[in-house]
């Protein structure tokens, strides 16, 4: 059975997710750990639960979601996967990281370009990547159909949506992506966002001021 652990890291309060099942194989999504203490929290959880990380996946490659990529790759010797449209986004992080106070940022490199519809497997678990551009050009969400859980990155939040004023962002594209891709999922699907608390598809369809029933778009 799928287990989801959320850890919140860095000054952006980014949600890092560790997914695992009864086999103890684990997937680390959007490792935002930067400070030594943050890395220790993630490492201790994996050690205490006796997990075996097998992949890192970035839903997208903005700085707050990739700060721990290099640490995780080196510590567990596992590959990094993300959508090919995110590679320029990742490569740019090193040039502006010091401006955000991350002078010790360590760069990482992709090992596999993940495409929409390509099944992600770990242990006995399968996730379906869904391309939801708008916040960034190659943004993927990861959907576990069996348990109706979706790791949504910075697409849909409780009562909000991802910002689109960063390079590669486009507001109309994001609105369309959410309505066409995410809102096609069952109402009971739990959204695990890149920031803030969980929500559900059904709740956001009704109440979200940007894409919900009464949104002005």
Automatic annotation (TrEMBL):
The organism's place on the tree of life at top rank: Bacteria
Record InterPro entries: MBL_Glyoxalase_II, Metallo-B-lactamas, RibonucZ/Hydroxyglut_hydro
One example GO MF annotation: hydrolase activity
Coiled coil regions in record: none
SUPFAM superfamilies: Metallo-hydrolase/oxidoreductase
Cofactor(s) listed: Zn(2+)
Pfam families on file: Lactamase_B
Residue spans crossing the bilayer: none
Domain (Metallo-beta-lactamase): residue spans on this chain: 13-195
Keyword Plastid: no
Key words of the record: Hydrolase, Metal-binding, Zinc
Protein name listed in UniProt: Beta-lactamase domain protein
Organism: Cyclobacterium marinum (strain ATCC 25205 / DSM 745 / LMG 13164 / NCIMB 1802)
């Amino acid at each position: 059975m799928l287990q989801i652990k959320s850890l919140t890291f860095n000054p952006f309060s980014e949600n890092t997710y560790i997914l695992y099942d009864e086999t103890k194989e684990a997937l680390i999504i959007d490792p935002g750990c930067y400070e030594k203490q943050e890395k220790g929290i993630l490492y201790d959880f994996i050690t205490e639960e006796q997990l075996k990380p097998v992949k890192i996946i970035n839903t997208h490659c903005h700085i707050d979601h990739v700060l721990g990529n290099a640490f995780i790759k080196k510590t567990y010797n596992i590959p990094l996967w993300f959508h090919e449209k995110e590679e320029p986004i990742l490569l740019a992080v090193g040039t502006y990281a010091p401006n955000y106070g991350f002078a010790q940022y360590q760069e990482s490199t992709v090992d596999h370009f993940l495409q929409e519809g390509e099944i992600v497997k770990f242990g006995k678990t399968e996730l379906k990547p869904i391309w939801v551009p708008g916040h960034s050009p190659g943004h993927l969400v990861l959907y576990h159909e069996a348990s109706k859980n979706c790791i949504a990155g910075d697409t849909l939040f409780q009562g909000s949506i991802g910002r689109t004023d960063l390079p590669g962002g486009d507001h109309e594209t994001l609105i369309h992506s959410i309505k066409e891709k995410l809102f096609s999922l069952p109402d009971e699907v739990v959204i695990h966002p890149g920031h803030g608390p969980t929500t559900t598809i059904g709740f956001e369809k009704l109440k979200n001021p940007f894409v919900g029933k009464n949104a002005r778009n």
